[in-house]
Every structure is written in C-alpha cells, then in structure tokens.
Amino acid sequence: MLEQTILNLEFWKHLSIPFVAAIIGWATNWVAIKLTFKPLEFVGIRPFLGWQGIIPSKAGKMAGIFVDKTMYRLGTLEELFLSMEPDLIAEHIAKIMDRRLEAYTDEILFYEHPAVWKLLPRAIKDSVYERVREEMPQLIDNLVAEAAGEIEELIDFKHMLVTRLEGDKELLNRLFLEAGSEEFRFIVRSGLYFGFLFGLIQLTVWVIYPFWWVLPAFGILVGYATNWLAINMIFRPLFARKLGPWTIHGLFLRRQREVAAVWCKLVTTEIITLQHIMYAMLYGARAEKAKALIKRHIQLVADRVMLTYSPAAQVIVGEETLEEIRESVGEKAVAVSTDAFDHWPFNRDRAVRAEELLRERMEDLPPQDFQDLLRPCFQEDEMKLILTGAVLGFLAGVGQLIFVFGGLS
After folding, report:
1. In the predicted model, what is the mean pLDDT of residues 352-356?
2. Which of residues 31 and 52 earns the better pLDDT score?
C-alpha cells in the first residue's frame, strides 16, 4: 500500500513537469513584456541595481527611430499640414480673432499706451476697429498660405516629435502598445502553449535521465525558446506563404489595415495635432523665423491702418509713439497666435483629415517597412528580453527541483 502511494506521488510529480513548464513559459513572457514598458522611471539604485522599462529608458532614441523609420515614410510635415486644409484653418483663425478684435486692440493701445488711447477721439477709435476688421481676413489668408509653403523651414519636424515623445514616456509606450496589442497578448499566451510542449519533452528526458541539471537546463530552454518563438512568429514570414491548406504569415503583418486605423488615430489626435504644430512653430527650435513672419504680416496691416490716420495721430501722440505701437502690434500678434488652436472640436476635425492621409499610406506600406512600426520595440533589447526569460526559467527549474523532487540527486 505504501509502495503504491509512493508510486502515485512520483507519478503526479512527473506529471507536474509540463504544467510547471507551461507556467514558466507564460510567466517569463509576461514579465518580459512588462519589463519592456515599465516602470516609466528608473526604480532602484543607479547605475546597476534597479530597472527602467526598455522603451522609457531610451525614450529619445526610440522617438528618433519612430520618426526616421515610420513618419518619414508616411508623409512630410508640409503634406500633413496641407491635408488639414490651410484655407479652413485661416477661416477659423479669422473667426476667432474677429470675436476678440476690439479686446486685442484695446490691450495694445490702452494697456500698453494708455495716454495715446485716451487722447484719440472716439471716432478714430471706432475707425481703427473697423479698418483692422476689414484687413484681418486677407492678412490671415496671406499669413497661413506663406506659412504652409515654408512650414518645413519654420518647424524642425523631427525635433518637434522627439521632444513630444521624450517628454511623455506614457504616450511613447502607447505608440507600441496600441499598435501591437494583439501581438503582446499572443506573446503571453504563447508562453503557456509552447511551455507545455517543451515540458512534455522535458518530462521524457527527465524520466530517461533523472539528473539534477535537467530541470534547470530545460527551465532555461523554456524561458529562452518561448520568447524567441513568439517574437519571430509576430514578424515572420514577411510575405504570406501557403503551406498545404494553411497560410503562414507574420501575425503583426496580417493586421496591417487594422493597425493602421488604430495607430494613425493616436498619432493625429495626440502627437501631430494642429495645436502641437502651431506651438512648435512659435516655441520650437526655429521659433524666431515664425515670429518674424507673423510680425512682418501684421505690421503691414498696422502700417496701412496708421497711414490712414497718421496725420491726426502724429499730431496727438507723436511719431515715436506710433513706432512703439507698431512694434507692440507685432509682439501682441505673436502672443495671441495660439489662441485659435485651443479649440478641441476644430483640432479634432483637422486631425481626421491628417489621419486619412496617414492611414492610406500606411495601408500601402510594403511589409518590410510596415514591420518597423513595432519591430524596434523588440530589436532595441531583444536579446536582453530573451535572456531575462532564460534566467527566470532557470530559477523556476531550480525551484521545481528543490520543492517538487527534493533537491539534488
């Protein structure tokens, strides 16, 4: 009876091997994915005792790869801006500015030059409002048209994108997580399936050769191979191949249209938005060029307005003060240039137009280019992830040897 109980116990111990291998495969793959993206900031004691997610730890580099390998293949900044329909952008700016025109004029003339504004007769003030209102639509049309033609000179596109993503590591993670959501789930699930299959081989070897090193060695194999297999099944083969009744194709590559829809929506609503473009133009690496452009256009209008009233105005306030007002107009125009873009519905509508352009081009990318949308996420430290799986598998194998089979034999 005791002998039968011992045999049954040994049977269940042996039977546990493929199930433990499946758990090892699942756990190592789950940990590998988590370590890719989390934590966002370094946790531990620098430089070696601790961890930061692989993507966040190299945010600047990964953002640069995103720009070079993906964005530049989908469209230039000029193409994206033109897809947002600059004529409608100009119309929107004019509409927003018209509502605040008198307030802006008062701010320039009253708050900065109160003596001037008080001395001017009411009739001249009203005429100034009216003349500026007449000039504004054409001014904005000309300004937006010139900016659209020179936008590559006014904005460092790569700097704009890298700065945005490097400053928001959560958003950088989402670029990969939302594009590869199905693939990351597959990696975790596949660890369970592949781990069980390797566990059956492990069981066979253990029954024939019950040496102490077999379980830790297979733990390494399970942890390493399940990660390696899962990653390669995502991206290989590049092109669909028929194998009897089955079609073999990389899991990520077969979802190209679906991924394009999700990814392009994220990019155009949170990264390359009209608002971000305008902020990059005014506060980015080439901001002085944009500010000079705005001042040049607005001061042309200021000159025309002042030309109409300069004889009376000069008598009242003097030529020197008029020149100060002219400069103030330019500075104020720069300061309020982003006001029209703090308008979520309009930004959303422009994003839809840009999304259509990007999605159409992404759907047409050849597989070797399309895979670069997700592949860098693994390539950057692919071996580190696979070896992490191997180490965790080794530890699990040692634990199984000690706690299930009673240690070395």
Report:
1. 94
2. 52
| 285 vs 157: CA distance, rounded Å | 10
Q: At 249, which amino acid appears?
A: H
Strand 241-243 to 49-51 pairing: unpaired
Which residue type sits at 206?
W
pLDDT digits (tens, 9 = 90+) for 78-99: 999 999 999 999 999 888 888 7
Residue 6 pLDDT exceeds 50: no
- 49 - beta bridge partners? 45
Give Cα separations from 27 to 173, 184, 393, 395 (angstroms).
Answer: 21, 13, 9, 12
Share of the chain above pLDDT 90, in %: 25
CB 195 within 8 A of CB 21: yes
Report d(CA 76, CA 83) in Å as an integer.
Answer: 11
Instruction: Confirm whether 134 is domain-assigned.
Output: yes
The pTM of this model reads 0.80
SS3 string, 272-296, reads: CCHHHHHHHHHHCCCHHHHHHHHHH
Total domains in the chain come to 1
Report which of 30, 22, 28 is spatially closest to residue 393, judged by C-alpha positions. 28
**What percentage of the chain reaches a pLDDT higher than 70?**
80
Q: Which domain, by its residues, includes 26?
A: 17-403
Letter for the amino acid at 221? L
CA distance linking residue 68 with residue 50, whole number of Å? 30
Taking the C-alpha atoms of residue 353 and residue 85, their distance in angstroms, rounded to an integer, is: 8
The answer as to whether 409 is a domain residue is: no
pLDDT per residue as tens digits for the range 8-45:
546 556 677 788 778 877 887 788 788 889 999 999 98
User: DSSP strand E in 128-228: where?
Assistant: none
Beta bridge partners of 51: 43
DSSP 3-state assignment of 50? strand
Q: Residue 51 belongs to what H/E stretch? A: strand 49-51
Q: What is the pLDDT of residue 49?
A: 86
Asked if the structure places residue 341 within a domain, the reply is: yes
Q: Tell whether 364 is covered by a domain.
A: yes
Cα(236)–Cα(233) distance, rounded to whole angstroms?
Answer: 5
